[in-house]
Task: inverse folding
């Protein structure tokens, strides 16, 4: 498995996709962090409140889109470029390739989250200081937020791998993922009648893990439960995808 | 290497719905020999090779390499190298990095990537992204991928596709050299002339079924002979009693199977038959291929 993970890391590092995606992730994080501070309004989520500050420090969560797409491309790219042939020639037990990708992209997601968190801190601390806002979050609270977001981003990369296994069609998988994250997920969580159920779905489970409170009255699991729910989705997609799509004939 | 990795295909079948792409196909390829795997486009060659390599699940029968199915090989790259389509590369990755991925999978040192590139003459292009490679260079990179583990068995699907005449000449020499090292080589082609000069044996399939299978020299012996004589009726009897199958082409022309032109001429002489024409209709494997499959060699 170590060899397979090394091979996956090599695949990732020998094209420029990772760098472009990282630049995109850093830019998105910088933008959302600025927006979270610049457009913050007084109230229950105001900058002075703990909830408001958690939201600011959780902005590396913007990278989850990038991490998810990276995970999707990790699998679907093999079919787009027909590298699935040499990949599965080298490793006929295809499930092992999927596991290697899950591990590799979890690690890559953590790396992306770390880089983006650095941006968040670099933007937020001086800006809050300039606004004379004291950081009310305790060290533990801050660590739970930053760590939660890092895990969230990593699990989104894993979710992307799972989704890629399930769909194999790169465009369909990416479009479906982006539509879910930006449209369906927020709607399902925000609408009162679906909110209860939606807390178990990846979008809101991820928010719980990252301790993001976009709307105070949306139902949300606790941090650990949210993380487990997100992990369960990612692994379920990967397992199902491996069964129904990855094992199909490579012609 | 060369400890006798035989390729054995037994009753291999693959159906896509009602279409029998490969139909109860059996043949073998021996160590130290180049086996040409021939058939017109769409005959089922690629599907057969992909079943042999565990990429396509057979609907019947089995294919083994050294007695084991591909999926049961411990580290396949140590045993089998395969080059299938010539475009299994990420366009943004360099040729060397492509090979380094497979070095990593198999725990080979990166020097194996450089050695493989040198073998196929791609050292100069090693660090360039594959998107700038010509089709011929991609074929070479495919071969290099197959050779990364220096395997005793090589399975190559249409390796000459997209090569220019110089490239084909190079490939021929290269494959001969690899075969000379005692490897089991299974090389598919729809262009017979390309396999004719390197193959020891040929397996010819059409519509997923085995058409002919044997040593090249045996297959090229004993083809058709056309003979024209005013005494056709009597000579047909003579030829038949000598063991040939004879059919009437036209009034004075007979088509015989199973005798060489030399035999036919001798029989005519012995039986005082007046000959107007004696024609050997065997000009290489292509003739056989055409006869067997009814498809002209495509070039």
Result:
């Amino acid at each position: 498995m170590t060899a397979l993970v090394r091979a996956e890391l090599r695949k990732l590092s020998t094209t420029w996709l990772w760098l472009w995606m990282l630049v995109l992730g850093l830019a998105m994080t910088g933008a959302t962090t600025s927006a979270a501070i610049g457009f913050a309004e007084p109230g229950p989520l105001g900058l002075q409140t703990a909830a408001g500050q958690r939201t600011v420090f959780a902005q590396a969560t913007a990278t989850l889109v990038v991490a998810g797409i990276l995970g999707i491309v990790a699998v679907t790219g093999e079919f787009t470029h027909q590298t699935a042939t040499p990949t599965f020639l080298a490793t006929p037990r295809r499930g092992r390739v999927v596991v290697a990708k899950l591990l590799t992209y979890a690690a890559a997601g953590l790396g992306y989250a770390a880089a983006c968190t650095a941006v968040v801190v670099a933007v937020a601390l001086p800006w809050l200081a300039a606004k004379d806002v004291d950081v009310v979050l305790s060290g533990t609270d801050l660590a739970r937020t930053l760590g939660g977001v890092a895990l969230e981003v990593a699990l989104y990369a894993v979710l992307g791998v799972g989704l890629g296994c399930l769909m194999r069609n790169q465009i369909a998988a990416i479009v479906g993922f982006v539509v879910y994250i930006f449209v369906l997920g927020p709607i399902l969580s925000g609408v009162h009648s679906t909110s209860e159920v939606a807390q178990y779905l990846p979008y809101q489970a991820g928010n719980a893990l990252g301790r993001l409170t976009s709307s105070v009255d949306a139902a949300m699991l606790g941090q650990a439960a949210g993380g487990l729910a997100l992990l369960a989705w990612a692994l379920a997609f990967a397992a199902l995808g491996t069964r129904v799509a990855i094992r199909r004939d490579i012609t | 290497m060369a400890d006798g990795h035989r390729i054995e295909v037994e009753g291999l079948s693959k159906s896509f719905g009602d279409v029998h792409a490969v139909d109860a196909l059996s043949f073998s390829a021996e160590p130290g020999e180049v086996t040409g795997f021939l058939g017109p486009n769409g005959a089922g060659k690629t599907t057969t090779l992909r079943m042999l390599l565990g990429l396509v699940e057979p609907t019947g029968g089995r294919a083994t390499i050294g007695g084991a199915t591909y999926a049961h090989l411990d580290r396949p790259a140590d045993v089998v190298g395969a080059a299938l389509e010539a475009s299994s590369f990420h366009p943004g990755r360099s040729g060397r990095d492509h090979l380094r991925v497979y070095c990593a999978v198999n725990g080979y040192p990166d020097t194996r990537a450089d050695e493989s590139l040198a073998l196929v003459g791609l050292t100069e292009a090693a660090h360039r992204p594959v998107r700038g490679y010509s089709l011929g260079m991609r074929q070479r990179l495919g071969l290099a991928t197959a050779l990364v583990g220096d395997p005793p068995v090589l399975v190559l699907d249409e390796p000459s596709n997209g090569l220019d005449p110089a490239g084909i000449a190079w490939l021929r020499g290269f494959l001969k050299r690899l075969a000379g090292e005692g490897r089991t080589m299974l090389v598919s082609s729809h262009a017979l002339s390309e396999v004719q000069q390197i193959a020891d044996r040929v397996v010819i399939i059409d519509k997923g079924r085995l058409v002919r299978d044997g040593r090249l020299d045996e297959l090229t012996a004993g083809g058709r002979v056309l003979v024209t004589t005013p005494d056709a009726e009597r000579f047909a009897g003579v030829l038949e009693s000598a063991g040939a199958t004879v059919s009437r082409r036209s009034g004075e022309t007979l088509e015989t199977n199973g005798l060489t032109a030399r035999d036919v001429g001798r029989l005519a002489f012995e039986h005082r038959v007046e000959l107007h024409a004696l024609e050997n209709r065997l000009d290489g494997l292509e003739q056989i291929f055409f006869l067997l499959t009814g498809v002209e060699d495509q070039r």
Observations:
- Chain A has one domain: 2-246.
